[in-house]
Each structure stands twice: as C-alpha cells, then as structure tokens.
Amino acid sequence: MTAKGNLAEPVRAELGADGRLLSADAPLIRLNRQCGGIDGGQLAIPQLADLVRLSKRLGMNLSRSAVAANEESTIEMWVKTRIPGMNGPGSVGIEITEWQESEAPAEDSFSLQRQRDLDRLNGRGSVRTDASLRIMSIFLPGRPEIAAGMVGQMLWECFETLPGGQGTGVADAIEERQPIRNQLMQRTGQASEKYAFSGQPLIDGGGIFSGYQFSLEREAATEAEAADGAKDRAGLIGDSLFGQQLAPALRQPLDKIIANAETISNQLVGPLRGNYSDYANDIAAAGRHLLSLVDDLSDLEAIEKANFTVAADDIDLVDLAHRTAGLLAVKSADHQIRIDVPPEEREAPAKGEFRRVLQILVNLVGNAIRYSPDGSVIKMQVRQDADTISLLVTDQGDGIAPEDQAKIFEKFERLGRSGDGGSGLGLFISRRLAEAMDGSLTVESQVGKGTTFTLTLPARQK
Amino acid sequence: MADRDSQNRPQYGRELLQRAANAARSSVSVADDLSAALSPRSDVRFSDRMLSFSRQFLQSVVSHVEKEVCKTAIEHFEAADETLAAIAGSDRVHSYQLLEQAGALENRQLLKYVFIQAQKVELSSRLVQKISRSELESILTRYLDHDNKPIAEAAMQFLVAQGREGTTSDTVLATRESLPAEILHGLIWPISAALAKLSGSGESQLIAASRKILAEHDEGQSAARCAERLAQLLNASDDPAIQSPHPLLDGVELFVARLASMARLNAGQVYTFTAEERMARLIVTLKALGIEPQSALSIHASLDGNGESLTAASYQEIDAQDARHLLQSWTLDPAYQAAKHALDIPISGQTDR
User: Fold this and answer.
1) Histidine kinase domain spans which residues (chain A) (predicted)?
2) Interchain contact, B233 vs A98, CB within 8 Å
3) CATH of domain A313-458
4) Of B184, B225, B236, which is closest to A76 when you measure between CB atoms?
5) Which residue of B has its CA nearest to A156?
6) In this complex, is the C-beta atom of A176 within 8 Å of any C-beta atom belonging to chain B?
7) Which residues on chain B are in Cβ contact (under 8 Å) with A58?
8) Residues 6+ apart with CB under 8 A from A222
9) Does A78 touch chain B (CB under 8 A)?
10) Which of A304, A305, A302, A262 has its CA nearest to residue A284?
C-alpha cells in the first residue's frame, strides 16, 4: 500500500542502458512490483516505460504528465527524464516531481484482491488493463515467464479474438464498457494457447472508466490435449469416464447456469418479482454446489494419483489467512460471524503450494462458518515451532465427539449431516494435500466447546 | 538595350526552365489539393485567418530553429561559413522554401501542432472580445499566492512561460523553447540538412550543433507543459476556493489543460474539439464530467465564434451515461481509435443500433 496524497520530495529512479531498473525510491519500486516488475528487471510501469523509450529514441529530455494505476489507486505524476542518466551512455534518469495518489476504481481493492484470489484458487489466470487497454498486471497459470513480457503491451498485441463466446463483438463490448463473458481469445501467434476471457469494466470514483479486470481460463487446444488435461486433473480413475469426459463437460454448462442465474437474481437485465429473484438465487446456489462437487471429485482423483506432486512456493501463512478471510467475508457476514486473523505485520514464512494451501484454508474456514452458530467468532492463529509453522482455525461450534474425530478425514464421511452444501470430501482432500506438502492437518475438539483444526507446514528460512 | 536583353535572356531562360520543372513536379498533386478543398475529411473548417497564421507560424518556427542551429555551430563548433553567419544574424527565413519543396514540412505531427497553435490563437482572440485584456492578465496571477507551494510555483513558471511565448495576448510567438520534444526533433534534422545544402559546407558542425540543441532542450519550460503541470495540481487540490475550469477564469491555455487533465484527454484533443462543428465533442465532454448547465453554457459562449448558442434544455437533454461512454472511447489509445475508424466499426452513440 503506497502513501496517499502528494509526496513532497521528488521520486527518483535510474535505468541502465538495457532498460533495467538499477535504483529507485520506494514508491516507484512498489508501483513497479504492482505492475508485475521485479527488482533489477525491466521497468514495468507502462506509462513511464513509454516515456523512457521516447526519450531514448529522440535523444532528448522530456517533461510530461503521466497517469499510472495500480489496483488501489490512480497515480498522477509529473515526470522528467534525463539522458544520459548517472550510469553512462544509454542510461536514463527519472525524476517525478509530483506524485499524487487518489482512490481509483469504484470496485475497491478488497474485491479486486478477492477476485484474483478466487481465480488463483480455481487455477484461472487474470489480466488487469488500464483505460487504454494496456496490460497493467497479468497472471497466466504456469506461464510466468511469458506473462512478465506482456506487462505494458496493449491487450490486442498479446491476444487475438477468436470466433465464439458472446454474440456481439468483443471490440464493441469493450467500446461500450460492457462485461465480457467467455470470449475465446488466443495468445498472438500461438494457435495452441487459447483462453476464455471474462471480465468487468472498472469505473473509478469520478465515474471514469479506468480499465478492465479479466479472468481467463485456458482452453484445451485439441481433443487430445483436452483428454490429457482431463487425465492430469483426474489421476485416480485415470481412464475413467469422469476423469476424461464428465468433469470438463460438466464445468462449462454449470458455469453458464450459475452466471445466468446470478444475472437474473441480481436483476441486471430488468426488474423481477421478488420470489423469481429468489428462485434464481436457489438455481445459482445449486449450480455452485454441483460445481464444487465436480471440483472435489477431480481433486480426489488428482491426489490419489501415484505421481501427484505439489509445488514448493515461498508462502506466508498470515498472508494466506487474510486472503481466506477476504474470500469468505460475504459468507461469514451472512451469518454475522467474525473472522479474527493474525496481525498483518506478523510473518509466518512457510513452504507449500500457494493455491493448495489457500484451498485447504478455504475448506477449513468454510466448514467453520457452516457449523458455527450465527454471531460467533472464528479465530485464525499462527504457531511457530522449530522446523514447522502452523495455522490454527478455531470455531465456537458444537464440537466433534472423540470417536468421530478420525472419521471426519475419511472419504464421503458426513457424520450423518446432509443438505448443508458439503460433499464429504473436503477434509479428506485437505489432509492429503497437507501431507503432499510434507505437512499435516489435525483436529482437536470437545463437544460443546468448539473445534480447532491445525494445518502444519515446513517453515521457510527467510 | 538590345545588349542588356541578350545578357538577361539566358538567365530568364534558365529560370523558366526551372519553373517548368517545378510545375511538372508540383502539379502531380493538383487533384489532391482540389479534393482536399472540395471534400475535406475532417469536421474542422479553416478560416483565412487560421491559414495565414499557420503559414506565418511555421515560417517563424523554421526561422528560429535555423538561426539557433547556425549560432550554435558558429559559437560552439567553430563553423566559419559566411552563409551560416548571415543566417545566424538574419530575421528572415532561409530554409523554408527548400523544406517545403522537398515535402519535409508535410509531417502530420508537425502540422497538427501548428493547427493547435492556430486554434489556441483563434480561441484567445475570441476570448479577448468578451473580457478586457487587463482583466485576463490579472486573473492569471491569482494562483501565485496560493497556500500550496507547488501550485504557487507552477503558476509562476506558467506565467513566465506565457510571457516568453506571448500567449497572454491573441498571438503565439514561435520560439524554439516552446516546442515539444518530438516536434523539435522532427524539424531540426531537415533544417540542418537544408542549411548544409544552402551553405555547401559546415555539415559536421551543423550536426553537432543540432545534437547539442536537442540534448539541452527542456520542453518543461514551454507554456503548454507549464499549464499541464499547473492543471494537474489544481485538479488534484481539495482547496474549495479553486473553482471549476472556465476560460474566463483560467484563460484558454490553462482551461484546456485542466479540462484535458480531468477528462484524461490530451490538450490537443480538446483544442480539436473546440474547432469542430458546434463544438459537439466539447459539450459532450463537459456533460460527461458533470459540469453544471450554467457553467457549460458560459464556457460554450466564451469560446464560440460563430454566434451559435447552447441552451440549458439541449444540454440537459444529453444523456450523461452516453456522454461518459463517448468520452471514454476518446481516451482510448489513438492508434486503436484510428484503426477502428479505418475499419469503419460503428462507434457507440453514433449508430442506430
């Protein structure tokens, strides 16, 4: 989070002849990271990179205004370039004499963060553009090296529209600032790399369009790849009907059912009688339940596959606890449940796959919300041991009897409960995922006194 | 007499031959000229005054740049050519004709810049008919004592730059300092080449002088950039005493810069809006920004030169959402907008869909 308002001191940066950011003041480093840049890498703030390129091409110093944006703020700057910079011929110096931040999109940073976490949880990518459709940040699952090179380029330079998706042309939809739904696009010149784009226009506090936030889902390029992809997702059953055919075939229509039901229930296309809106809500809820069942079954197959592996990302359990609370904020608010998280400044560095740990925590806190009384509190706490680090999720629910505590980690075990939206697979999957990351998932509970689930992972040396 | 005639005849003959050769070359484009005159492709109509100003302004810019290149070549790089020395001390333009014949001035970016200067003068001259010059000059000093130091400093720089460029009156002096970097870069090399051709020597000194001028150029000193900077600060300020942009309060240049900053357009776009028929895009921009009807009417009246009036009823009839959509489409990357127009894809708000 950068400081709001006008910075009194100029913000400076030096770029080498190869365009790499050699040094910069803190606000610029932060903005560069938020735009997808890395320290010591190419300048990733598109508006500044444009000015630097122009300055180098002309061989002249420039003085211009520039407006950049991250997901929290719009930053208006007065930028001066100086060539050569302090690092010899070809280098460029930047001095920003006014740095004024203001709240940017009406869609607040919290919901953008939440959407991005949801995308990553579901294995989807995301793209954020500015008002001129220049890519500000991008996450392509499994393609970080390609994504880094796209920051600063126009969306149309990186992706080509393909037939399919929504009826009206995507260019017209963007022109009219309409939401985009399942528009098929391919990475420019890469026919084998197709994505379904869905996105919303972002409108800032002044009512001005400030860009798009897209979610994107990789499409299988060929039938063979589709089958391979399904196999990857469905390791256990392998050649089974579900793994190869049903899961991918079910997801797409379920997505459409949920999206259309939500459109109807939110009355986006016109007013409805109250009970019709409720019916649409029920349809969307049922669709989401089916979709989570499909996801659980796919995960079940995947984790039972002999060669199932997880990535060892550098993660922070406090950060993940905050993201989990963000993802489930609406659900907990519906039940007036408060989620207490560790203080943001506390650090809990661990090793584990970001997406899988988030999945475990969403499952644990989701269960806690489901089985806790309205108005209660769910606590997330961190515990550091010698080589491990743990996150504890404690609720104020009815608790679990000692004889049932082992059973809850078994497949399809519901302890006699039904109709609450659960599949009986979540804890089984979560424990297997924790073990795959060299960790563990345990439970402690007393009937009538609540339950504590403890996720333990290898600690990471900072 | 007969002797004199016979002496002049060869020169006359050579001149006629040269004219004939030039005519053959230039008349190839006669159809293009007629087509542009009969079927202009833009909504903008050029008055004789604007055309005259544009020609003079362009000549003046070339004159300033060529003079400075020659001076720098002589003072810093020991150029000793007599022609260059004469140009350095002359108030007349020397390379213009050569550049014009070579088509070196038919540069879209340069011509657009000249058009913006012409429109700026046009608007300023309309404004001084509605407000006294002394009033206009006094209101421009009102930010000098502002409590916010950056605003006061930026206002002072703007005032100084305006004084240098003469933009407080109804003209704009062409100076090298006032040129944006791209325009100076685009002009200085053809001018240097023309000077080398005219002088027949001193090429390396002219190149070195051009490089020095480019390296030392500070476009941040121009009135346009100073106005942009002040506009950015004023628009970001939460001081309730700072009023909405208005030509009668800010003058043309600052008003345009403030409106452009608020709408995320560039100043050139706003000047173009003011030159279009009925200033339709300017009105839509005001509506999209939520400018109150009375202010919008007053802004329109102070910039209008054709006696057309905007009524409160017609301003209120404009759908604010449609206006915002249109404004947003104008903020898109210019290359994208140009490609869309070239592909003839309907623009929202202009179709019968």
Assistant:
1) 245-461
2) yes
3) 3.30.565.10
4) B236
5) B336
6) yes
7) 181-182, 185, 214
8) A192
9) yes
10) A262
Q: Give contacts of A67 with chain B, Cβ < 8 Å.
A: 264
Percent of chain A with pLDDT over 90: 16
DSSP string, B218-229: -GGGSHHHHHHH
Check A98 against B232: CB less than 8 A apart: yes
Q: Which residue of A has its CA nearest to B345?
A: A172
Spatial distance between the Cα atoms of B71 and B89, rounded to a whole number of angstroms = 8
Beta strand extents in chain B (DSSP E only): none
List the helix and strand counts (H, then E) for chain A: 15, 19
Tokens matching residue B154: 């930026």
Mean pLDDT of chain A: 78
Radius of gyration for the alpha carbons in chain B, expressed in angstroms and rounded:
24
CATH class of A105-219: alpha beta
The domain covering A5-102 belongs, at the CATH homologous superfamily level, to PAS domain (3.30.450.20)
Put simply, the answer to whether B150 touches A6 (Cβ < 8 Å) is yes
pLDDT digits (tens, 9 = 90+) for A151-178: 777 887 888 877 755 444 667 777 777 7
Flag if B232 and A100 touch (Cβ within 8 Å): yes
User: How close B329 comes to chain A (CA, Å)?
Assistant: 6
pLDDT in tens, B49-100: 888 888 988 999 999 999 999 999 999 998 888 899 999 988 889 999 999 9
| Backbone CA torsion sign across A96, A97, A100, A104 | negative
A95 at interface of B, judged by CB pairs closer than 8 A: no
**Closest to A58 (Cβ–Cβ): which among B182, B225, B345?**
B182
Classify the phi-psi angles of B307: left when phi > 0, otherwise alpha if psi is within -120 to 50, otherwise beta. left
* The two domains A5-102 and A105-219 share their CATH topology (first three levels equal): yes
Any idea where the domains of chain A sit in the sequence? 5-102, 105-219, 221-304, 313-458
**Chain A CB contacts of B327 below 8 Å:** 208
Beta strands in A165-233, from DSSP E residues, in sequence order: 180-187, 194-203, 209-219
